[in-house]
Amino acid sequence: MPEISLLTRAASCYERAGVPLDAVRCYRAAGNYRPAAQIWENLGAFQEAARDYAAAGAHEVAAWIYAHHVGDIPAARAELAAAEAAAEATPGRPGPAAGAATPPTAATRAAQLRRRVIQARCNAAENVAGTETLAILREVMQHLEQGREPLDLARVEERAVQVAEVMNRPDLVALLFAAAVRGGRYQAAERWNAWSLRVLGVPLLLPEPGTDPAMVADATDGRPAGSQAARS
Amino acid sequence: MPPRQQRGRRAPSAPPAGRIRSRAEELPQPPPVTLPEQAESRSQEPRPPDPATEEARGVRPDEDARQAVVLAGSFADAWAAAGYLGQLLDLTEAMPTVRHGRGRWWVMASIPLNLGRELIELAEGRGYVRHGDRLQPDRGWGAAPRPSQSRGTALDHLSELSLLDLVRAAGMHARPASPREQVIALVPTARAPSLLRRALEMRLHAAFRPVRLSPLFNGSAPEQQPGTLVEVRIAGNAPAGRQDRHVSESLIAMLDADANVLLCREVSPRLLVQHDRHSPLTDRQLAALVGDDAWVLADPPHGCWSMTPLAEFAGAGSLVRLGLSHQLEPGDESWPDHDLATPLPEPAELKIVPALDRGGPIDALLLDDDDLAGLPLLLQGHPLAEFATLVRGRDRHLLTAPGGIIERIPLGEYLACVGPGPIYLAHGWRTEPRLPADVWRRLITVVPGTALVLEQTRTMAFDLSRRRPVWELWAGGLPPFDAQLDADADELLSRMEEQLRAATQPRPGDPRQRGKADQPGGARGLLRRLTRTDPAASRDQLDWRERADEAERAGELLVAAKLHEQNGELERAGRLYERAAYEGPGGSSQQP
Fold it and tell me: Is residue A62 part of a domain?
């Protein structure tokens, strides 16, 4: 059996030397699939990245890459099912054994929301279950606007925007960004502006703070909503 | 314990006022409102207990009823009596005895009065206190009854029986069996092989032994004659914690339905009880009754037996009957070798076959003469030219570098290092069978200072002491030395040279004379002597790459890797770490 720590060290040297494929070989020989998958992803080799993410047990990431980058929807749905099964098997997860009174943790809810966005991405790719997709995006908007927990919403927002773009629905994109701005998400207005420049070719005009009724309502809640928009 | 709300049988015989003193009397009571003269007269009278309060509290007063008495419980049916007997068996001092008479069962024991009253009431019996040869009825309350010759039951009217007789009369009741990890089947000998085979097919642990059965109770039916049976123990095969470690319920149901098979659960090593039957005594109490021989308790038609093992348990596999082809026969004489010089097997031929993984780095290059001619064109100005070395052979040449060539130069044949030492295979090939690193380590100790290149049909050996820097291919030898001294200095140095030579002129036969002829003379020779360095001192001044090369050739790959990493040669460091992971870090893994 090869010495795992030496292989990892070799992979680190290869990475720093700029020979990523040799690093991938060492990481995989060491059974350390996640950094290998990240190298593949950085190289744009999404098929290999998804395969290594799946081998590393990161089924959710693998599912998104299969769905969004590779376009292999059956594989994405299979990885999504594996992610669901892994989440079901996670100790401490609320279930019949743990008792129904145990509330789900913020991380559990975040992972569930991410999986639902991947489900929406698969639906959009196959052009099926439009109602469910819209419901998922509405749920994302609700979390972006009202969620008070660190639910890894930046990634959720990014993926939801990509889903809406695939559906060719810029209105949904705008609604998602608007929800993020109203929810006071960090640099949401900047991301919206960048999207507008990239897709529409025009900069974004957001109302000044205090002039938008929704923002005024947010300010009464004591949330820093609209402050990012003001900086933009 | 919740308070008893009513005591039906005790209510008619409520204790008389003034006989009961309980803790309840000591509870603080609200002071009654009385006239001063009345209060003084009342304080002299004993305060009567309040039976209603006692009844409501449901506490049986302890006073005068804690001492042990010989108390008999009388029960209308054997089941209740056996339940009471079981409770008594848990008390070591009780020493219970059983009697029967007047249509009732009597269980007598020496027991604290109130405890006996509680247990008898639990079993719905009546209590009697023994005084001499009579049993006086107990009120269930207060002190024990006084002796009386007219009341009660004479012991002579009750016949004494054994505890086992009560157990027998009480019988057993059926209760659905829970899943079991082990069941025991008593089967006639003719049925045992099929049962054992079935258990083997179901991958269960099965063992058997013959046992002798004799009737457990005296005066058993005449059909209960002693005989032999086979005891088969069947246990689940799965490890503990697995759900399928239990014996299959379908197998249990099948055995239970077979009239010839008695399926039992093992209560203790000496007590087997029919698997879905339970006595009013608990298993523990029942096991305490067992004597020398093991008991088998079962309902009709099987009945109860005393069991004596006739042999030790044997595995079910011993009952598998093999076909004729499985019979043991003398060995074939032609099978073993007779005339071999050594009994060791012939080693497999080492082959070199293509490997699946061909993406590894290049460690060395094998060049022919044509490649050698083209090498200067490729390597001039290349960083590899700084430290790559060449070992020239007859028609093949080996180009190596500390940490490996790494770069895929479009020339020659790529080689990959397979051992801790300089042993190379063609890149993308491997040995068949695969060999451990220790083999290569031993091989390189056989030919130290040699690089080996294994090919399909030959192994080429390159003497590493003949390594030369690769740049010598195009740099050639040193140009002629011209000191460029003026005439006086040149003459002075020539004279000094002559004097030195004369002073060191060896006499004929001096061994130092040899080898001097080829030493340069004049200013060049003097300059060399002045600038000569001690080889021992120069070893300490080796640069890091030479030290890394030495460590690599010595098989200390980790040392070499760290040197390369510290000096920014990350790709070569990575290759050496990778080789160290597969081939071992080497004998010295300390910091360089």
Answer: no
Q: Whole-structure pTM over 0.90, yes or no? A: no
Residue A174 resides in a domain: yes
Query: Are residues A7 and B573, on separate chains, in Cβ contact within 8 Å?
Result: no
| CA–CA distances in Å: residue B224 to residues A56, B164, B190, B303 | 69, 17, 19, 8
Q: Give B55 or B352, the one with higher predicted confidence.
A: B352
- Is residue A47 one of the residues assigned to a domain? no
pLDDT digits (tens, 9 = 90+) for B195-216: 888 888 888 888 898 888 888 8
Task: Say if A3 is an interface residue toward chain B (CB within 8 Å).
Answer: yes
- Angle among Cα A122, A123, A128 to the nearest 5 degrees reads 145
Residue contact A2–B581, C-beta within 8 A:
yes
Residue A31 lies in a domain: no
Q: Which domain holds residue A120?
A: 106-232
Report how far Cα B413 is from the mean position of its chain's Cα atoms: 51
**Tokens for B320?**
């598998």
Q: Does A24 touch chain B (CB under 8 A)?
A: no
Q: What is the pLDDT of residue B23?
A: 40
Within 10 angstroms of residue B281's Cβ, the number of other Cβ atoms is 22
Q: pLDDT grade, residue B242 (50/70/90)?
A: low
Give the residue carrying structure tokens 């025009």: A202
> Span B426-452, mean pLDDT?
86
CB contact under 8 A, A13 and B580: no
Number of independent structural domains in chain A: 1
Give backbone dihedrals phi and psi of B309, rounded to 5 degrees, phi first: -65, 140
Those residues with Cβ within 8 angstroms of residue A145's Cβ, 6 or more apart along the chain or in another chain? A179, A180, A182, A183
Q: How confident is the model at residue B288 (pLDDT cuts 50, 70, 90)?
A: confident
Q: Give residue B7's Cα distance to chain centre.
A: 58
- CB distance A25–B585 less than 8 Å? no
Question: Can the peptide bond before residue B433 be classed as cis, meaning omega within 30 degrees of 0?
Answer: yes
Minimum-distance CB partner of A25 among B359, B561, B571: B359
pLDDT (0 to 100) of residue B591: 38
Backbone angles phi, psi at A35, to 5 degrees: -65, -30
Probe site for chain A from B405, B567, B578 (most A CB atoms < 10 A) = B578
Q: Residues B343-362: pLDDT tens digits?
A: 777 777 888 888 877 777 88
Distance from CA of A20 to the nearest CA of B (A): 11
Q: Are B442 and B377 spatial neighbours (Cβ–Cβ below 8 Å)? A: no
